[in-house]
Write a structure and sequence with these properties.
about 525 residues, alpha+beta, 4-stranded mixed sheet, 9 helices, about 20% helix, about 30% strand, globular, disordered N terminus
Amino acid sequence: MKDRWEETLFRMAKQEQIIMPESMSDKIEEILCKPSRGKFHMNWKRSLILAAALTMLVSATAAASVGAVRERMEAMNREKIEEYFTQIYTTKIGMDNYNRPYSDTEKERMNKLREAYENEARFPKGELTMLDDPEEYKGKGVALLGDTTTFFFPDKEMSDEELLQIIDFMHKRDYSLQKMNEMIAAGEAQTPVVEEEIEATDASILDGDAVYEPTQELTIPYTGELELDLTIAAGRNELFLAGFNTVHRMEIGSSDSALFFDDFDMETRILAMCQDADGDVYMALWQWPDENDAENRMLVVWVVNRDGKLLRKIDMSPYMAPERIGYVRRMAIDADGYLYLSVAGLKSPKEGQECEILVLDREGNYVSRIAPGEYALDINGGLGVGKDGKVYTCIENFYDPDNPENKMGIASLDIQKGTLGEIYYDIMPEGTIMIDIIAPGAESDFVFWGYNGIFTYNMGDENAKNVLPAYEAPCDWEGARYCALPDGRIVIADVSDYRVIEHPLGKRFLAVPEKTCFYYMPGM
């Protein structure tokens, strides 16, 4: 899925011919370049921060057009502004969520009412209800669960008053964000400090065989020393955790990790990992022969046995597309030992065409590229092995600005034909933004990690089922690292704080170990 929010915001900035101060430009760059809390997907929280920065820079003419809306916003007292800002800052999920999607008529009326709100000062008589717990919602009116930014709508068609309350809330939220950013920059306010109490799973469960049960939910605060980077991956009874220049191994149910491999011959970043049936671990790497040259990087795949001994290196340079920086998003190995890579910036050596999925044998020899045909492959590159031993990927419709509805599904990969195999299309519930991780479910054919929660799916069913909505998740859903265990559980590494260090290859955002927690979520 493209970062359409980001594209829209920068297009607006270009049209306004905005010249940003260097300090503001650097701040926005840091916001956008920080490790994506969700695999390079720009969330609404960062979009709002960028939008607030841009809003402060637009012309006086645009500001004057706000009129009565501006007066309504400025009428809020500081306590109310701080309340809105804190709700944004402390939400566990970096996006708006809904207990049901808008109906087509509600969408149409929402657009008209938004124009009436902004241009005719048509304001609601009341405000939406704030909830502390989702069970507080009894199906009447509109309400918001602030902890996860989840809007609750009644089953029946919403009234104009209810839609106006939503519009009013969003305007006040945006304004409060901008105002608080201004006050923080001026030293007149401070960023909220959030201290979250985590209730760990009982030690009697962690010390027993229950940790291996596919129905067992676990909460395990991390006690190790590794500063996590972008990647975690699942082995059979273990997790592999990537830091810079190092990989750790952590047993299922453990709170600590141990060094697995760090014998890299140059500066290294681990992009993706997977484990085969023999226990060998495949690692896709960026390596820099010269750390003073950020663009001079090599893409390679290293194979290490389960004892941490290097077996072989696969040179990816023959697959590099001209003037492109190769990247591996996901990796998977099928029952026959073929390695599937979801990639960007690589080409097939035979056809000479850029490819999104590349298939190699154990030694790294080219086998096939997968052409998705009439479908698009998800930009996050979801890959996973099903119960049948085949590798599946996420597919979606090509983006059409005139019909932006996102339809998604999965498909197996036929390496003999170089095409998609079995296709299960348009299976995700309306409003689903994306799916990424694919794995066999404990009591279903598949379990998915999605931006909207955990889903299960059985072949032949019309739709996948959201068994854990993101707004019910125990942690920051969009900001997590995640992988799927062979037993169907999704493992979430919640990274709530970073240490930023300057490096010749660019800023590094290293997860603070004491602020990292692992959640094992059953896909039931």
